[in-house]
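DM from R.C. (forwarded with permission)

"hey, sorry to bug you on a friday — could you get me a structure for this? deadline for the figure draft is monday and I only need the backbone to look sensible"
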Amino acid sequence: MDTAERTENTGEEATGRRRWNRPRLPRWSRRARRVRRITLGVLLALLLPLLAAEVTLRVNYTGDPAEGTRTRDRDALWLGHAWVDGRRTDADVTALVRRLRDTGVRDLYVHAGPLEHDGTLPKSAYPKARWLIDGLRRKLPHVRVQAWLGDEVAPEKPYAMHLERPATRAAVVASTRQILAAGFAGAHFDLEPLHSGDRDYLALLDSLHRVTRAHGAVLSVAAHQIDPLPGFHSFWGTVTGHPKWWSQAYFGQVARRVDQIAVMSYDTMQPMPSLYGGYVAQQTSLALEATPDSTDLLMGLPFYHENRFGHFARAETVPAAVRGVRLGLSRTDADRPAFGVALYVDFAATEADWTAYERDWVR
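My reply, with the result:
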């Protein structure tokens, strides 16, 4: 063996010794490495679908709304409790009439509750209801004044209203008769959080609708958003304990039992106007598919500006929401007459909110 060959073999042997004699990592270090790899894999498994969903929403916000996707004069406005407890004046009514006269608002949901947890409603909760109803009837005869009634509900809120109790449901029906006797043109219910598939809620709506039909009045509800992905409410409920969404099928079951359903299409956790608008477009399409033609469908607009978990004021804007509504309407049922938007809420609204609604939706 010549010198070059001995040198080459010696190098191979040295390399091999270095490879095979490399010290092993401590067991805790190997375990940490495995944990990091698993964590990375889980994060990717969660983030990639989320990223794909957000890209889909952004794409959903593109395009031009169809001509004519504007108000059908079936819009609604949620009004705070001050309108029936004595804090508002005749001057306030005059200003409200001036505000609404050239808009598409037909229904006013006036907060007349909340309901007690047992379903009863003290008459002392709405002492000025007749004053408001009569004043608006004289000045805006085409507008219907509905009583907005709500409460928290079990099982997610175990201390609150238990719809599984027949006595509670019977009390809610009695409270509805009470507010119709007070002169309201309808009853608007906002019971939260209602889980998808709640049969007791459907039974309550059946009973309520018999009463409102007999009085020639309107039964309307504020509805949860629809699963953005099939079965998402089940996944979210397992992870958080709060299954925020309804299945599309359950949304349809609710919509068939009422005269009017208003989707609370805000508090969406979307961080940008384009993503929020794309989300509203998706919700509008899903709701249109599930709502019968005989039921008025309204999509909620965020007339408030809080910043908290689930709601970014910079993202959830009226222009983004209206554009999303128009896009969803254009793609799904552009000529549907029983359709509108619902403005939440009067006491938090700014001039910019009203301007955007009138510019982008009414005109």
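R.C.: lifesaver. DSSP finds eleven helices and eight strands in the chain.
me: no worries. The mean pLDDT is 91.
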